């Protein structure tokens, strides 16, 4: 872990610790009740642990995987003390996260040989989608990258205006049209404009309507098609933003969006205001999509690149 400490700054780590405080406190108060009066990990402890994980929004399927892994260790080691459970859980959850989140990134980067890097952002309204885009723009700009935003959520005037606020705040150009315009047309213009401005990163916001999956699917497919007229392999990343504080509802949203379009990465927001941080573990495992970013505070720098080692370390501190 010491290697990660060196490249994951002290300030970032403190923000992550603080952001996961509610989740951690809730989890460990439940865990201590689950093992109360028990010296070794037996069937009762495992049953209680299953309940703790499910009620911490890890999700049923992922919980069962974790329990199976611990049962294997109990069978192998013959005796496991409840005092070892924290460390075992830590190891097994880190192992589970490693299956999907293979990288150990600690900073905002884009592939070196991809310019412009086109990022399409999807997610329902209210999950922190536009805020995530604004914070991403800020972080990329800090790295010296030229960023262009596209307001392709033309379904709501508020969405266009909100993105404009972030564009002004971060001092990056934005391409926008009137409410009700064709979202694909905005996306096309944004990519074209990004190329003309020699942009490194192009971030496209999209509408977050789920009431009709067929319309959403068609719209997202059309946006992709028109962008590919300008950049053949765009988008390079389809980022689904989920609100961590909604717990199981975030699972449902992930299910709907992965049916509607090919999602390649996840951002889980609002983890600082909730005890449902376990949702990160479950969603990453169930959908086999890497978690790229997590929101652990309201500040512009409180969107962090997800690092599985640091996440588990903060969760089990």
UniProtKB/TrEMBL annotation:
One of its GO terms (biological process) is cell division. Residues 290-303 form the SRP54-type proteins GTP-binding domain. One of its GO terms (molecular function) is GTPase activity. InterPro entries: AAA+_ATPase, P-loop_NTPase, Signal_recog_particl_SRP54_hlx, SR_rcpt_FtsY, SRP/SRP_N, SRP54_GTPase_dom, SRP54_N_sf. Keywords: Cell cycle, Cell division, Cell membrane, Cytoplasm, GTP-binding, Hydrolase, Membrane, Nucleotide-binding, Receptor. The keyword Cell membrane applies. The keyword NADP does not apply. GO terms for cellular component: cytoplasm; plasma membrane. It is found in: Cell membrane; Cytoplasm. SUPFAM superfamilies: Domain of the SRP/SRP receptor G-proteins (SSF47364), P-loop containing nucleoside triphosphate hydrolases (SSF52540). Its EC number is 3.6.5.4. GTP binds at residues 123-130, 205-209, 269-272. It is an enzyme of class 3 (hydrolase). It is a peripheral membrane protein. Belongs to the GTP-binding SRP family. FtsY subfamily. Involved in targeting and insertion of nascent membrane proteins into the cytoplasmic membrane. Acts as a receptor for the complex formed by the signal recognition particle (SRP) and the ribosome-nascent chain (RNC). Part of the signal recognition particle protein translocation system, which is composed of SRP and FtsY. This is Signal recognition particle receptor FtsY. It comes from Tenacibaculum holothuriorum.
